[in-house]
Task: structure prediction
Amino acid sequence: MSESAGAPAIQENSPLARVESVSRLFGTFAALRQVSVNLAPGKCYVLLGENGAGKSTLLRILAGLLVPTSGTVRLFGQHEPLDARDRIGYMSHAPMLYDELTGVENLRYFARLYQGRECLSPEVALTQVGLDPALPRTLGQYSQGMRQRASLARVLLAQPELLLLDEPFSNMDVESAHQMVRLLARFRTGNRTIVLTTHQRELAAPIADWVLTLKAGRVASLEQGSPTL
Result:
């Protein structure tokens, strides 16, 4: 379905997110051009497109890290992304972890940023992504797959309802990537919504309810997936 047909949408009574005619300019460069899409709760959306297509820009707008130049974004009803940030987890392409600390030390540091909120313990978050909280190795000694799982554990600390993941399979070997896919399939349960960017459609196919392709900042297509996990 192309963006000329209006807002590509799954027929849900209450979409988790409504993106309406969103454009984002960086100087004279249009990273997004009149993007409209509705996101349903409890689904996994895979964003595809070449470098510069606008995938990461859209993800950052949903996370409240960028403001659209024009258009509107509403999450969880009528909330703007900044107002809903306690319900959003964002995993950037960069790990945002400290190489000189162990996994559990990293998560204990980030857990202090969520004081007053009901969070997972660092030990539970690491265990959920298949990492040993007692591992004495520092992040600098982790494999790429372990680093990505530790990054996911950091995002899961605050138990977000919306997971936004920028290239979660980046630089992983095939087995590590498949392990990440299996983890995400588990975390999608309980009506949690996942939006992820990737260049590797085949890796995300087992969990993709919908595949959104961006081209030159526009919605080129929205295809229903056939998830197997």
